[in-house]
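pipeline/complex-builder :: batch 7 item 3
reading input block
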Amino acid sequence: MSIVNILIQSTLVALYLFLAICIGLLFMGIARKVTARIQNRVGPPIYQNFIDVGKLLAKKTNIKHNWIFDFAPLFALAGVLLALAYLPMGGYKMLSGTGDLILLLYIIAIPALGFALGSGASANPNAGVGVMRALTLMLSYEMPFLLVLLALMIFYNTASLSTLLEKQMSFAWGIVALPISALAADIALQGMMMEKPFDIPIAPHEIASGPLVEFGGKYLGMLMLYSAGSVVLETTLFVDLFLGGGVVLNPATYGVVAYVVNYLVWFALIFVVWMIAVFINAVFPRFRIEQAFKFYWKWPTVIAAIGLAQAYIMSVFLGVIP
Amino acid sequence: MKAIEIFKELGIEYEEMKVKGNSTPRYRAKVEPDKLEEIIKKFKTQGFKHFVALSCVDWIKEGNMELIYHLFSYDTLEDVFLSIYLPRDEPKYKTLRHLFPQIETYEREVHEMFGVEFEGNDRLGEFILEDWNDMPPMRKDFDTVKYVKEKYESVPLVEGRGDKQ
Amino acid sequence: MEILGIFGIFVLVPLIGSVIAYLFRKYAVAVAAIFAAVPSIALYPFYDTNVSRIINIGVKLNLTLDPTTWFFMLMLDTLAFSALLFAIPYIKKAQGNFATLILVALAGANGVLMARDFLSLYIFWEMMSWATYLLILRKSGEYARRYLLFGVLSAYFIIMGIGIVYYYTGSFLYSATTGIPMSGWFWILLFLVLGFGVKMAVVPLHVWAPYAYCAEQPFVAFLSGGLSKLGTFGILMAMYSIAGISILQGFGTFRGVSLFGYPFALLGAITAFIGTVLAIFQDDLRKLLAYSSIGQLGYVMVGLGLGTSLALGGAIFHAFNHAFFKSLLFLGAGAVIYRTGKYKISEMGGLGYKMPFTFLFVLFAIFALAGIPITSGFISKWMLYEAAIAKKFVFIAPLMLIASVGAFLYCFRILYGVFLGQLSEEHKDVKEAPAPMLAAMFILMLPLVIFSIVPGWILGWISKILVSMGLKPLEYSTFAYYSPIGNANMLIMWIAFMLLFMVSMIIFMMKKARVVDQLDNYLAGEAPTQVQLHAAHNFYKPLKDTWAPVLKYSINRAYEKFSQFFVEGFKEIRKMYTENPQDYAAYMGIAFLIFVLVGWWLL
Amino acid sequence: MTDNPNPLPSIIPEKDWKKIQRMLSKRSLWMIHFCTGCGAMEMPPTMTSRYDMERFGIIPMATPRQADLLLVTGYVAVKTLKRIVRVYEQMQDPKYVISFGSCPINGGLYWDSYNTIKRLDKYIPVDLYIAGCMPRPEAIMDAFLKLMKDIDEGRADGWLRYRKYYDKYRANQMRVFKRWDE
């Protein structure tokens, strides 16, 4: 690994991460526009979220409670960027060669914990209740999601994302091989991205936007970058696991053109996945946290278990080795 | 049991009130303050289970305060107003919250707005008006316009107003 | 030099120390800390040796110090030293008694680790159990009785195992176990594993743990961090060094895993799940840490049960991590209890602002417990998951994964309930924990950081252990570790995390922020009231309501009902003694008649 | 409140930086409305499909920390003023205030009531008044556009005035109610 190579790789990674955050903000703007049109409204321009982040970061005064309060924006943004660095985007395997799905699963937990710490330190009871709801929601949607990950790992017999992409290229896309698991994953995705009906932790009417109650100015601006990054993170996770990560042309044969084409295909795929979530979000009221927990540990878990059984049978008894 | 029969039984002279557009029969009766509790108990047992309101009227010319206890019966659909008169300078009466729990809230309001003392009601302190240190505002001798002029108009404008608009 | 052999340093020194420390009345704990330091320092020259020695005290005790013992002793002695260092300001009454008992327990534990024959194993095991019983007795008789009951149960299981071995081989040596038929091995292993399992608080036998962990915090840190690892060591030795991998496979294998080990792995996964779920709903800080300790030991049980080199390496590494982050958590809880005198999480609150160092240590221990990659806690969990998924176990893997997500919940409950949220009036002047406590916690935090950056060192020690037990060594390099289905490189992750942390720091530093008092909070425009608005009471109420039908059944109550059954039974039998002689005469007559009949029938 | 030193990068000249900042805060006004009197009823039609204030980037937020536009929609009792001032002070600069209806202008319907204040501007700096008892959504939309123009031209400087004349505002407030941090 010569120094020049490392430099090129790191600038590429930086470019991909920056693009990911911009795509995230663009997607949030599109979501607001789509929701507005569903409600027969004009809705804000697509670039509205860029302006919002700019305004927040340019605020004159910022309020903080204590030194633990600063954990939230720092850990949240750093954690989500680290997780994005471990996710292959459009076939470009950034760090996913040196870390696998389980490492990614725990890196996704870093921003969640850092954010929970910061909002806990704001000494506001709304924040405490909000984080309790967020963790309960996490426990509920992680059940089906872990079963889905297990099904994938058992069927493709690998935990590393880069080999998973290659196997999906050679054998068949995840959604083709394990359609039931893909359905369970999409339902779990709705909870992961905290879209309505599962935006219980940040409910503005009941607990004054939960953990975000004391964040304003640059804190809220960085947390908005974090939520933009997590939008791209979760949709890319679904696309990488089930839709072949957008790898259409083999980079070995076509070189740079392949990377560009794959990037556009990947962009289209995550847009489709995001639109599914946005359409559900636009028409659903908000669940209570008990309903969400009962819901996730009933139907999506059953679907995911069936998917796991299917993967288990196919890989162990029928001997289907991708 | 009809309100008229209760009045006759207790020997109180009452007065039927005609109110345009309101068909339910309404009766008014002036009662001695010390006999009021017995009368209300009697009405309560005879079907007048709903205590509607306790209100106060400040007769500044006659120099007394009138407390009106308004009861309603679901069986006979009748309204009864029992009123007592207290001296205006220092109106004092005993609490009746043991008969109906909601009487306590009405007593607190009447105390704050009219200054009527109710012995036995320990929650008579600050109720609706925060940091109020003037005389009870609903009394007729309280001049609101003078109060407003002296309290609000006297607050100076902060210069640097954007009068460029 | 004869006496100063391994027996001298690791067993005699603590024993002598316990006597000497008792003489120093008020400074007993400090002197005991010095005596505990001797074995932990003397350990390093013995790094890669295989010293063995036979001590003849009427009965032959042969002790050896090989890499396995060295590894576990490294854990135990550092824990004992830091627990005693922590205890200097903590223990206020009867320091002499506390110091002696801790050192006796340490001597017993070292003896168990070095023992290579069943007799010395049993002697040191009893010494350690008795010292623990007396230490819990210092706190409350009722809790100590529960511990004693299960301690005796575990001793009986071990004696049964030893008895069967002696019956077949006629000698107590570990190595002299040839010519035992498979059925014999089954019973030996069953009794030994259950006997040691009691000390590791496996689910059906875990009832003593939440009560025993309510004793004084420095001792509890040593008990839950160190002494529970003796159970792990016992099972490890019984299954892999006494029996050996060939005999285990002899019981039949299911996809490469011995049929004897698989049910224990399943039991471990269930322990992990139940331990975590129970820990989520506890309000008492010590009980919460106790159930979480049971849950984490469930992970170690899974690794021991599976038995592949990756699973066993993960189990040993997780035992190492658990030893350090769990005792760090207990010491942190001890510091908080020392300063506020309260046990309930909902009564504390906002202590993180007043005790910043304790908060940082507990935060790091929480990251290790939850398995966040910037600590070494992640690597051991990663190895256990990879082992389970590589072997395609569809019951063990989900239970373990969902248990680790559940771990986030009670981790945050500790952090929010105790350290964040609103600081109440009475804790306004709480000071930071005293210096010896912070030093003790720092010692325990070091390995979790070092081995998360350079996992290669500890993976080297562990694969030495695996090789000595006849298993394949682990695949690892200084910064990365590999498994059949995936790999992870910690150095790259650390560098990436540091760089990205700097990026968000740059954005963060663009504007200054004004510090605001904790009461200047948005409460719908309302005034800052004196009402305590710390939202930690009954923290996971919605979750508790949904789990209510399942939470009805509790193993504690099952034991109580079971014991109640016996009490009723004995009451009936007691009625037989009716204090009037005629009944007794009648009983004698009947008994005589029965004897005559039986004798006649036998002849 | 001391003036907050802003370590802004010097590559962009100060004047342009202020211009960009004004454009940003103009195009994304996050609003928190204190539904005191009868004006709160006018907000739903302004938010929903007929008028849709989100076109201008104005969305209702849950807490003052996140908001920079405070709507006081109706008569202000003394008790409510105590909460309005607390919410206003919890908001972060640059912050703007719009008050609806005639009651905050000159007391309106309650000109002689003993417990409502007659002119909101004496207690917190109001950037924009909307006359009318109660203004219809068209008037509210027009006010929003007017405020955005004022922000762009730098005239909406209520928050600067509150900082500069803070002691005068505080004195006025204390003449009417007892502040918490007195």
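note: The interface with chain D takes residues 32, 36, 39-44, 48, 51-52, 54-55, 58-63, 204-205, 208-209, 212-217, 220 of chain A (CB under 8 Å).
queue -> next item
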